[in-house]
Specification:
CATH superfamily of the largest domain: ADP-ribosylation/Crystallin J1
Helix content: 55-70%
Bound molecules: magnesium ion
Number of strands: 2
CATH class of the largest domain: Mainly Alpha
Shape: elongated
CATH topology of the largest domain: ADP-ribosylglycohydrolase fold
CATH architecture of the largest domain: Orthogonal Bundle
Radius of gyration: 25 Å
């Protein structure tokens, strides 16, 4: 018996996103304060490789900076609390004060001005909840850390947009800074869903036609035709998003994307982090060069964090996604005399007489074909829930499946639906 899952590589892509972010951050960091034209000429004859650098008077390689630390804080908060800006903010403060989520757990490195200002002056008790456009807050600080929201809410565009905005404004209450997070997280969601990348900009424009003008213009730009020398790289979130998108859309591998995002010079660690998160979500973790991964400090922790984030997704959403994406031929067909013309539920290969009788009865007594489909959905959902150790979610699943159908239909076949739920449970436990 097999449950067909679409996009079986979503876990690898989730890992790819966080590992890609951290690799882009540490690989780009050594070039951050070098003049862009020097960085460009350096990369004309050099490959992107981990290099040793001095941090707090220590020689280190694979040392990630604020971008990754804050993304780790956000991911951990989402896993532990769901979406809770107060907890996110508290963790960012722990990073600043105690070096929480840093490579060696000692000292925060690379804090941006805007982030510093908010983390030292703003209290958790009155965090902003409305977007007001502070013209000074358009920096990269929210964009560089926002990817975990795209990873967790990739199936729910409404939540993805709302949470990207609300999470950004606790430090960067600026229209472009906040909407850049929406754009990046939407692209991450397309990547996880397995969409081909050339359509990302037009897809986002179609999804959010009233996106702020500057972003609208960026999404309408043909990035294949831009001149690298004209890319503005000022640490402004829109510029960084543009560099990351340019690198992502004009290359075909994770390695080339990251190299391009860093080799243009500028805010290289953040450009690397944003491009790395996006390319990692698209290409997956397996294809990130081993030499880059092996050098990353706390690599295994970050992989494990991605796995925890993946598993923290609401089980009801996950199960509904699986059953709606499965390739079952539904509903099963019954002839007018009640004989079955194909398996009642192709995923289960049901042969027991009573299930067959019950299905036939339900089928005959209803003119609505959806009865069998609802029954199959309920059975498969309970089966998966038990397999995923989520038996306590069965009532919620049951409700989610039946609430989209007319109440009288549900009431008329209640016994049958309950039987389907019991049967799914039974099969999960006996297989
Ligand atoms: Mg940084």
């Amino acid at each position: 018996m097999k449950i067909k899952m679409r996009n079986n590589n979503i876990l690898d892509k989730t890992k790819g996103c966080l590992v890609g972010l951290a690799c882009g951050d540490y690989l780009g960091m050594p070039y951050e304060f070098i003049l862009p034209y020097k960085v460009r000429s350096y990369f004309q004859s050099h490959k992107l490789e981990p290099v040793e650098t001095q941090i707090f008077n220590k020689s280190v390689t694979g040392y990630y900076t604020d971008d990754t630390s804050l993304a780790i804080c956000l991911a951990e908060s989402l896993i532990e609390k769901g979406f809770d800006t107060r907890d996110q903010f508290t963790k960012y403060k722990m990073w600043l004060r105690e070096g929480y989520a840093t490579p060696y757990g000692d000292r925060a490195y690379g804090v941006g001005q805007q982030t510093l200002k908010f983390l030292t002056r703003q209290s958790e008790d009155n965090l902003p909840t409305e977007l007001v456009n502070d013209p000074k807050a358009g920096g990269n600080g929210a964009l560089m850390r926002c990817a975990p929201i795209g990873l967790l809410y990739y199936k729910d565009p409404k939540k993805l947009i709302e949470y990207s905005l609300r999470s950004a404004i606790v430090t960067h209450n600026n229209t472009i800074a906040a909407w850049s997070c929406v754009a990046l997280n939407s692209f991450i969601s397309y990547a996880l869903e397995g969409f081909f990348k050339n359509d990302y900009c037009s897809a986002l424009l179609a999804e959010i036609p009233d996106i702020p003008t500057e972003l609208h213009n960026l999404l309408n730009t043909n990035l294949h035709e831009i001149n690298e020398d004209e890319l503005k790289i000022r640490g402004y979130s829109l510029d960084t998003l543009k560099v990351a998108l340019y690198a992502f859309l004009t290359t075909d591998t994770f390695e080339d994307c990251l190299t391009r995002a860093i080799a243009v010079g500028g805010d290289t660690d953040t450009q690397g982090a944003v491009a790395g998160a996006l390319a990692g979500a698209y290409y997956g973790c397996e294809v990130i060069p081993k030499s880059w991964r092996n050098t990353l400090i706390r690599h295994d922790f970050i992989v494990d964090l991605a796995e925890r984030l993946y598993n923290s997704e609401d089980l009801v959403t996950k199960v509904l996604y699986i059953i709606n994406g499965s390739n079952r031929k539904m509903p099963a067909h019954f002839m007018s005399n009640g004989n079955r013309t194909q398996s009642f539920c192709v995923d289960f290969d049901i042969s027991e007489t009573d299930e067959y009788e019950m299905a036939s009865k339900a089928w005959r007594s209803s003119t609505d074909q959806s009865v069998i489909k609802i029954g199959e959905d309920i059975m498969l959902a309970t089966f998966i829930a038990v397999k995923l150790d989520g038996e306590e979610f069965i009532p919620k699943l049951y409700q989610s499946i039946t609430e989209t159908y007319p109440e009288e239909l549900f009431n008329k076949h209640k016994d049958y639906f309950e039987h389907c739920a019991d049967f799914g449970k039974l099969r999960a436990k006996s297989s």
